[in-house]
Specification:
The chain is about 25% helix and about 25% strand. By secondary structure, the protein is an alpha+beta fold. The protein is globular and about 100 Å long. The site of flavin-adenine dinucleotide has 35 residues, from helix 11, strand 32, helix 12, helix 13 and strand 34.
């Protein structure tokens, strides 16, 4: 059991003792970090004693009224429950960290944690003074973190009050820098200086920040003791708000591991020794554990940024590095950059990315222990000199997919912020590669040091007689000399002949990339289709949206391609069993539903629409067959060799085709694309699979055989397909019961949109969530659906037919994927962002790879696979994908929701507008729902749009263009939308969000 003394803190230099006024906790009481345990009276005021050590209060406690010298024990903290007092005569050397704050000081403004590595920050300025009124969202101070200078924003109204940490104070994350009180009269105008060892050093009147007042230089912290490998190392402190076993803390001390942020694998997430053993030591601890040479003289403490650089650079000594240099003639690139009006830095970054497409390893990183992180995102750090002479490394994100003009616009803002060291954490954290250009300073040759987290750094020196030296320092655990030499050779070609890619980076994108609908990535095309005497360079298996778009793109580029499809016409599920027929039914249902508003608008006599089922079906089939015939004609016209039959792999270059009639045969191929879709999945509920054959149970594959709309329909599954069908049949006059196993239907839809849609749906149909489905029995027209609700109450729903809308699942069992080395991820085929499977010459797209099972997703991925086979590096980016649920009102999404963005570390904000305030929606009586705009706070880019509105299927196009075009709130706010149309809402939303951001931004 460990004991720690709570000592009388020293509030000021003049304070020598204090009097105990109250104890706020009793021996045995649990104490959390930051709890106030006592109040004491000093020579200045009554102060609360705040303890920064979790545990239990233990006696003996100083008596109320006793005078205790500064530094003497007031009481103790123990780490063991029930241990209410220290032993008589026990000497407690370890101290619990304490802090004194004035009694009733108000709400503390604490030092925020602004990056994963930040443990303390230095107060740089106070933007408000004690007594100043504070509004939610105000910036009260700026602090220097280990990476940049950041604003401190508060979210409470009130008045700033002291003691405020003086400019230059080093405040630990989570500790108070100042307070907010609710009454100006209560504001306290004292200031304190807090040093790096977190002791209050002094008190004085706080003066307003002034440019010429030098920042207080904190007293240096004592040099840390050498960490010994013996078992006598004291355990590290418990991480804040987390549990760690005593042994884990000891091992952490020995290995120099920082427990903050470590995942715990013990019971209830407790950090155990094994977690510590697996962890990466913090850079500070690695740096401090390396031999240090003591230097005579009085050192000054490093600033947070100096410390971070020092630790990272020392830790980088653990990287086994090597250097490779080539000389490059940059004249052509400089001229091309000038012509494009972009900076040479941006052009070089883009060139590095273009060359890296062929050598993706340069962008990887070593991850302890013995792992490689294979990254395809090109987020390059580019070193910039800040106005105060320091080096800052802002990150240009997504270089691989952005045109050079967009990169230039990113870079302009980044450099401005970097120069004053005002970067947001995502703008400097986690680069994948780094570029340092000291050539501008006339340096003839230098090497740069990669920090842990990247595998390579590029050092560019000044132009000399043989060209400009480009030196890569590489981490030998990830790269070898040949990797870097080949990369640099390609970079040389890329920079010396920029015409091939720099043009394509802007308006003149090569055709294949321009139409792919995917990120335009510029590289000299080198087709990866293996060379050989194949029957077909590429075969496509499956003729749905994924396969067909892929085959068309390849054929369009002159590749001889065969597409084998197990159906007479192309179109796949989308045309024959999915999007098209369901929307044909929806169109008829819409006509019926829309009549409900006629009387409201002054048109009587239209409220008895009558469904003509035969005509509905005739119309649906006409659309399907017409489109199927058009598609086949177009495919053949483009010289795609379309075959009807079932394809399966024989080996990595042979496909066996079993036609409907005739003998199976084989064809040889260089590369293949699998686009075989995912059929409806029926879970093993008694009777569900058994009654498929007689039609008592149907799926989305077989519902198209209904001879008339059922009078009563039982639907199992509350996903998008179930909901679309439920409303269609409701409009056709069917009574619908929907059973869902989970506690919410439409789980895939953005939460708030989903909630409103569900509420609307529940007015029309009966939805039972948390249902256990026991059986689907009977015959068509007389089915019984037996289920229990979430309370276990059993019911039977008598209906004509049961629709199993229980999802879709790829079935690759007959493709012989094991013969070609294509791996699965669950039921789906595993692919990378380029849609390439684990077999290099085989790609897979659409529903068969899982993810969003949508027709346009499949088609996009088909074009991505084609693009890669043509040698253009292209990737599918789910973060820009979209979808519409054809419910009423229609739900839709483009890009990310706030929750999804936050999970990716993007500081996202949203604004929403109800449809009920839109003039056009009021005129047409379509006022249900809302539109939401999601933007990245740091860049103002629109990253998501979410809809619940009639006509979402049209309005969504605007969201798609905003997200795909990376439009900013300012651009949309300035755009002119016509009146009265629902599109006006987008401008309103952008302006609303901009104004909100402006209000909370630093003045
Ligand atoms: C009721 C319903 C409504 C839908 N509505 C929409 C919507 O509104 N919007 C939307 O975007 N998506 C919708 N979808 C989803 C959409 O239909 C699919 O996401 C899309 O069709 C997937 O395309 P794919 O190319 O991956 O596969 P598929 O369209 O399934 O095509 C695969 C093709 O491959 C063939 N095939 C399979 N195995 C072989 C083999 N071994 N050899 C040869 N051929 C083979 C199949 O016969 C089929 O023709 C809906 C789906 C359903 C069920």
């Amino acid at each position: 059991m460990n004991h720690y003394a709570i000592t009388m803190p020293q509030l000021s230099d003049t304070m020598t003792e204090g009097v105990v006024v109250t104890w706020e906790k009793q021996p045995g009481d649990k104490v959390e970090r930051g709890d106030i345990v006592a109040t004491v009276e000093t020579d200045k005021a009554i102060m609360d004693v705040e303890v920064f050590k979790a545990g239990y209060l233990a006696g003996p406690l100083a008596e109320v009224g006793a005078t205790i010298a500064v530094g003497a024990a007031l009481g103790y903290i123990t780490d063991t429950a029930g241990d209410v007092a220290i032993a008589a005569g026990e000497v407690v050397e370890e101290q619990a960290q304490t802090e004194m704050i004035p009694h009733h000081a108000g709400t503390p403004v604490v030092m925020p944690q602004l990056s994963d590595t930040m443990t303390e920050g230095v107060v740089v300025t106070w933007e408000k003074q004690p007594g100043d009124a504070i509004k939610r969202g105000d910036i009260v101070a700026t602090v220097e973190t280990d990476k940049a200078i950041m604003d401190v924003e508060v979210f409470q109204d009130g008045f700033l009050s002291g003691p405020i940490a003086d400019v230059g104070s080093v405040v630990e994350v989570g500790h108070p820098m100042a307070f907010i009180v609710d009454d100006a009269a209560k504001a306290n105008d004292t200031g304190v200086t807090i040093s790096a060892d977190h002791k209050v050093r002094d008190t004085h009147k706080v003066a307003p920040p002034s440019a010429d007042r030098p920042a207080h230089i904190p007293t240096p912290k004592a040099a840390p003791g050498q960490i010994s490998a013996s078992g006598n190392v004291p355990p590290v402190a418990r991480p804040q708000g987390r549990q760690a076993s005593p042994y884990a803390r000891k091992v952490a001390a020995q290995l120099g591991v920082n427990l903050a942020g470590l995942a715990g694998s013990g019971p209830s997430g407790v950090i155990v020794a094994a977690d510590v053993a697996r962890a990466r030591p913090s850079m500070a601890e690695v740096a401090h554990s390396l031999p240090q040479v003591d230097v005579p003289g009085q050192g000054r403490a490093m600033s947070s940024m100096e410390k971070a650089v020092s630790h990272a650079m020392t830790a980088s000594l653990t990287l086994p590095t090597f250097h490779v240099t080539v000389n490059i003639n940059t004249a052509a690139l400089t001229a091309a950059a000038k012509a494009k009006k972009v900076s040479v830095t941006v052009a070089i970054a883009k060139a590095c990315s273009v060359a890296m497409e062929k050598f993706p390893r340069m962008n990887w990183a070593y991850q302890p222990v013995d792992k490689l992180v294979e990254r395809s995102n090109h987020d390059f750090g580019v070193a910039v000199m800040s106005n105060d002479g320091g080096l800052v490394v802002p990150i240009l994100h997504g270089i691989e997919k952005k045109p050079i003009e967009a990169l230039q616009s990113d870079w302009t803002g980044l450099v401005e912020r970097a120069r004053v060291r005002k970067l947001a954490p995502p703008e400097y954290a986690n680069p994948t590669f780094t570029i340092s250009n000291m050539g501008m300073l006339g340096v003839s040759h230098f090497t740069a040091i990669p920090t842990p987290g990247i595998a390579a750094i590029l050092a560019i020196a000044a132009n000399g007689p043989q060209g400009t030296p480009f030196t890569v320092t590489g981490d030998h655990r990830v790269l070898n000399g040949a990797d870097v030499a080949l990369y640099l050779a390609t970079l040389k070609q890329t920079i010396e002949a920029p015409e091939g890619w720099i043009q394509g980076s802007g308006v003149g994108v090569p055709a294949a990339e321009a139409v792919s609908g995917t990120a335009a990535i510029t590289s000299v095309p080198v087709s990866p289709i293996p060379e050989g005497n194949w029957d077909f360079p590429v075969v496509v298996v499956g003729g749905g949206p994924g396969g067909e778009d892929c085959a068309r793109d390849l054929a369009d580029h002159g590749i001889k391609v065969m597409m084998v499809n197990n159906e007479p016409f192309p179109g796949g599920e989308c045309l024959w069993r999915g999007c098209i027929p369901s929307k044909a039914w929806r169109a008829a249902a819409d006509v019926i539903r829309n009549r409900a508003h006629d009387a409201e608008m002054g048109v009587d006599g239209t409220n008895t629409p009558k469904l003509n089922w035969d005509q509905v079906e005739r119309h649906r089939r006409w659309v399907q067959t017409s489109r199927g015939e058009m598609a086949l004609k177009a495919d053949k016209g483009m010289k795609i060799d379309v075959r009807e039959g079932y394809g399966e792999f024989v080996d990595a270059h042979t496909l066996k085709i079993t036609p409907v009639e005739g003998e199976p045969y084989t064809v040889s191929f260089g590369a293949a694309v699998i686009a075989t879709g995912a059929p409806a999945f029926v879970p093993p509920i008694p009777g569900a699979r058994e009654n498929l054959a007689n039609g008592g149970v149907v799926t989305s594959d077989t519902i198209w055989n209904l001879s008339s709309p059922p009078k009563k329909l039982g639907i199992v599954g509350g996903g998008v397909i179930g909901v679309e069908m439920a409303q269609i049949f409701r409009d056709f006059g069917t009574e619908v019961l929907m059973l869902e196993r989970n506690d919410r239907i439409l789980a895939e839809i953005e939460e708030e949109i989903g909630k409103v849609l569900i509420a609307s749906l529940e007015k029309e149909i009966t939805v039972v969530t948390g249902a256990a489905i026991h059986e689907a029995s009977g015959t068509p027209g007389a089915m019984k659906l037996r289920y229990a609700n979430k309370d276990g109450v059993e019911s039977v729903f008598d209906c004509d037919v049961v629709l199993m809308a229980t999802g879709k699942r790829p079935d690759t069992s007959r493709l012989n994927l094991d013969k070609v080395g294509v791996e699965l991820d669950g039921a789906a085929i595993r692919v990378n962002a380029r849609c390439q499977t684990s077999a290099a010459n085989i790609y897979a797209v659409g529903d068969v790879i899982g993810g969003y099972m949508l027709a346009h997703t499949a088609a996009t991925q088909g074009r991505v696979a084609a693009g890669n086979l043509l040698g253009h590096a292209s990737e599918y980016d789910q973060d820009r994908d979209c979808g519409v649920t054809f419910s009423r009102p229609q739900a839709g999404f483009v890009g990310l929701s706030v929750a999804q963005a936050k999970a990716k570390g993007i500081d996202a904000v949203e604004a929403k507008m109800p449809m009920s305030i839109d003039a056009k929606a009021m005129i047409t009586g379509e006022t249900e729902g809302m539109i939401k705009l999601v933007a990245d706070k740091a860049t103002g880019r629109i990253i998501g749009v979410h809809y619940l509105a009639d006509h979402t299927d049209t309005l969504i196009g605007i969201g798609v263009m905003m997200v795909a075009g990376e439009m900013t709130l300012t651009q949309v706010a300035k755009a002119i939308f016509p009146h009265p149309t629902q599109t006006e809402l987008f401008g309103e939303l952008a302006r609303r969000l901009l104004n909100r951001l402006r209000r909370t931004a630093k003045k």
